From TrEMBL:
SUPFAM superfamilies xrefs: Bacterial exopeptidase dimerisation domain, Zn-dependent exopeptidases
Binding sites annotated in the UniProt record for Zn(2+) 1: H94, D105, H205
Family note: Belongs to the peptidase M20 family.
Pfam families listed in its UniProt record: Peptidase_M20 (PF01546)
Keyword Hydrolase recorded: yes
Binding site for Zn(2+) 2: D105, E140, H397
Classification of source organism: Bacteria, Pseudomonadati, Pseudomonadota, Betaproteobacteria, Rhodocyclales
One annotated GO molecular function: metal ion binding
Cofactor field: Zn(2+)
Protein name, UniProt field: Zn-dependent hydrolase
């Protein structure tokens, strides 16, 4: 881990965040759930998550912010504007982690938002619209499903009751876990129930991929997010003894399934530059050394920048499954289990981020997010955009996840000025 502290970067207007303070906040937060390998294990709504929430809230109250907690546990730290009737200009992310998570995924977006508020206070800058920093509940989905739970409830992607009744492997529900850590709030959790809409929402994040580092570029101007279609595929043959059964008489489900798995990659390669295809989980039955596999179940993850591309990939997968049944003595079932619509972020906010990077003298390129983020949900209710900064070797969801302090400071500076442009300053 790089332990040097960054210097505050300069912007066109001369106003800049304190990079050293941002870095220290990230390091302090990372102590809650710190792992021996230098990462963080802080699953959603655990005692450690509660302590991290308490720390964030205490930091925000010290800056004069009010705190609102909604019924799904989302936290909104609000710095008042001179016109509090205006919708807030918001930023944020999440502070729950993967079991073997890093210091920056999600946490950077929240701490960058806190640093924006600290900078405004330090320089006595008043904004016309209020500014809010959000902590969204259970973004990672490691303990509770669905992922991006807090922002999903906020935009009515699923109901509050559905979310509160989800249980972890020990049978503990979201409702009980929220109560146990003191974050079962009473504010409306969804826009339909009266939760306020934002005037604009920005989310700063490490890229979680290798594109920016490969291009030696500091700022990713995120124009949108890839759509996703996930599938459960089952190939059924017949298990039989590996010795007495001749090769020509076998109904080998695994042998057939491997052909379809390779097709997943071929389909993605045929839909570049945005096409993605992954087989991430495979179950073989009966999984015995000397038994010909009778059934294989595996997952498929398709992603693309537009729905036409996703639908073409879907059609190619189903056609390949049909052909497999003709070429091999097996049955194939393909079931779509998840669909996330491709998202295009608000052009005016994307332009503001691009312009801010140029004014700050930061190298930048347009990029599409390949991962899901809370911003993807929020974009359905308010103008939204994201700022990416590089992470070392493109590694995330890993204890060795790392980022350059200067890149983190640069991204926070772009965030600061993008938010100020929307919130308006008062002389």
């Amino acid at each position: 881990m790089n332990d040097r502290l960054p210097t505050a970067g300069a912007s066109a207007s001369g106003l800049a965040i304190d990079g050293s303070r941002l870095w220290q906040s990230l390091m302090d937060l990372a102590q809650l759930g710190a792992t021996a390998k230098g990462g963080v294990c802080r699953l959603a709504l655990t005692e450690l998550d509660g302590k991290a929430r308490d720390l964030f809230a205490a930091w925000c109250r010290a800056e004069g912010c009010s705190i609102r907690i909604d019924q799904i546990g989302n936290i909104f730290a609000r710095r008042a504007g001179t016109r509090d009737d205006l919708p807030a200009i918001a930023t944020g992310s999440h502070i729950d982690t993967q079991p073997t998570g890093g210091k920056f995924d999600g946490n950077y977006g929240v701490m960058a938002g806190l640093e924006v508020i600290r900078t405004l206070n330090q320089h006595n800058i008043r904004t016309e619209a209020p500014v809010e920093v959000c902590v969204w509940t259970n973004e990672e989905g490691s303990r509770f499903v669905p992922v991006m739970m807090g922002s999903g409830v906020y935009v009515d992607a699923f109901t509050l009751d559905h979310a509160l009744t989800r249980a972890d492997h020990d049978g503990i529900t979201v409702a009980k876990a929220l109560a146990d850590i003191g974050y079962a709030g009473d504010a409306p959790a969804s826009v339909s129930a009266g939760a306020p809409r934002f005037g604009a929402y920005f989310e700063a994040h490490i890229e979680q991929g290798p594109v920016l580092e490969d291009a030696d570029t500091t700022i990713g101007v995120v124009t949108g997010a890839l759509g996703q279609r996930w599938y459960d595929v089952t190939v059924t043959g017949m298990e039989s003894h590996a010795g007495p059964t001749p090769m020509r008489l076998r109904k080998d489900a695994l042998f057939a399934a491997t052909h379809l798995m390779q097709k997943v990659v071929e389909i993605a390669l045929a839909h570049q530059p945005d096409g993605r295809g992954t087989v991430g989980c495979v179950h073989v039955y009966p999984n015995s050394r000397n038994v010909i596999p009778g059934k294989v179940s595996f997952t498929v993850d398709f992603r693309h920048g537009n729905d036409d591309g996703l639908l073409a990939m879907d059609a190619a997968l189903r056609a390949a499954a049909e052909l497999l049944q003709k070429d091999f003595p097996v049955a194939v079932a393909v079931e779509q289990v998840v669909y996330f619509e491709p998202v295009a972020f608000a052009p005016e906010l994307v332009d503001a981020i691009r312009d801010g990077a140029e004014r700050a003298g930061c190298s930048h390129l347009d990029i599409v997010s390949g991962a899901g983020h809370d911003a993807v949900y929020v974009a359905g209710t308010a103008p939204t955009a994201m700022i990416f900064v590089p992470c070392k070797d493109g590694i995330s969801h890993n204890e060795i996840e790392d980022a350059d302090p200067e890149h983190l400071a640069a991204g926070a500076n772009v965030l600061l000025h993008a938010m100020l442009a929307r919130a308006g300053t008062v002389s």
